[in-house]
Amino acid sequence: MKCVAAYRTPYPGTQPDHLHPSYVSSIKRAPTKAQVPTPYTLSEVTGPSFEPGIVGPTACDLTRGHHGEPIGERIIVSGRVLDENSRPLRNTVVEVWQANSAGRYMHEVDQHKAPLDPNFTGCGQAITDTEGRYRFVTIRPGEYPWRNHYNAWRPAHIHFSLFGPAFSTRLVTQMYFPGDALIPFDPIFNCTADEKARNRLISVFDWETTMPEHALGYRFDIILRGREATPMEE
Amino acid sequence: MSLQATTSQTVGPYFKIGLQWLNCDNLVGEGVSGERVTIQGRVFDGDGVPVPDAVVEIWQANAHGKYNHPEDTQKKLLEPGFKGFGRVPVSPEGLFRFATIKPGPVPGPEGKEQAPHLLVSVFMRGVLRRLVSRIYFPDEPRNDTDYILNLVEPARRSTLVAKKTAGAPGALEWNVVLQGPDETVFFDLGL
């Protein structure tokens, strides 16, 4: 008889509900029926795994790969990926995307009247090392308007997508910057009820990774779900 | 020490920039065994309007019922040409399509095999944390005894079973309906 150890259930309020009316797009897209709780089976505790070679050596530097240097403030975004049991997660793919320094995405749907930067696409990938570390070199993204409500502006943010060791650990989130005056007004940031949990989405200015004469450092540690200690009978 | 999982946030409308490098709509590499299927569907919002900015990911076992993952210790054959992961953004008409194989059965609760199935993650603007569902296969007798399918109220089980396309062998249809009477069953995996 095989046993499968479950992943931990999040503490109440630390993850967003599907419906958050002040984030208008959720109104017609949030499921209305109760989700069906399921036990963990082999399907949920396995998931896509990747070899370090899948990520190219320069994929973590968003300021390279173009003819020139992108406009904006160069920054280093780094951190560790751990599970809820404080174990570093290695060989985890981290995908990021973001607006340029003027607050414009290199995407045909984004019609914000801010300039595109031919030297900045805004996407990067990394794979964590044996200590769970990742590191990106990029440009600080700009704030930008959106049409959620009158005079709505998104705080500066970088999108993150992670796999972790299993289907159950998949996470898509956003990283914010300390001191951003727009954060308290952002319905997406505020969709998580627990104040401490949402504040953990704000990166920390970091002297240790700041490079003299080159770039400010921001640290953003990411916690993926961890296993329960006791396996369930399968 | 115990930490809390980082809060989920929406993938937003511009995910293509960051996610397209890993797009994969054909999971079947060279030498892969199993029954070829295509799974095609659309994503609909609460007004029945196709969602133009969603991304769908699938995870599945190979035809022998073996996952390409270290935690699957079953003595079943792994096939190098089959990783089991797919990712596709929907088209402006809300359409997605995967070419894959029908997986074999994998172990489930109470020591019983599960019916062949795919796991699905759906992300989109307006959805604050991913939606998790399953795709089961039509004309599959094991569906009747599948542990997970039997957790779902009978009237809603059909939202989890792909439909055959008349006159097109191997072509299956499975839609994501976000709201309403035909709302797709989504599973609560805790996050």
Would you write up a description of this structure?
The complex is a heterodimer of chains A (234) and B (191). Chain A has a single domain (3-9, 37-108, 115-233), classed as Aromatic compound dioxygenase (Protocatechuate 3,4-Dioxygenase, subunit A, Sandwich), CATH 2.60.130.10. Chain A has helices at 42-45, 195-199; strands spanning 3-7, 36-37, 74-83, 93-97, 123-127, 133-139, 144-146, 152-154, 157-162, 171-176, 204-205, 216-219, 222-224, 227-233. Chain A has 234 residues and is mostly beta strands. The mean pLDDT of chain A is 95. In chain A, strands 3, 6, 11, 12 and 13 form a five-stranded mixed sheet that branches. In chain A, strands 5-4-9-10 form a four-stranded antiparallel sheet, with no helix packed on it. In chain A, strands 1-14 form a two-stranded antiparallel sheet. Chain A has two helices and 14 strands; from the N terminus they run ββαββββββββαββββ. Chain A is globular, with a radius of gyration of 19 Å. The relative contact order of chain A is 0.25. In chain A, a hairpin with an 8-residue loop joins strand 9 (157-162) and strand 10 (171-176). Chain B has a single domain (16-177), classed as Aromatic compound dioxygenase (Protocatechuate 3,4-Dioxygenase, subunit A). With 191 residues, chain B is an all-beta fold. In chain B, 47% of the residues are buried. In chain B, strands 1, 4, 7, 8 and 9 form a five-stranded mixed sheet that branches. In chain B, strands 3-2-5-6 form a four-stranded antiparallel sheet, with no helix packed on it. The two termini of chain B are 21 Å apart. In chain B, a hairpin with a 6-residue loop joins strand 5 (117-124) and strand 6 (131-136). Chains A and B meet through strand 2, helix 1, strand 4, strand 5 and strand 10 of A and helix 1, strand 5 and strand 10 of B.
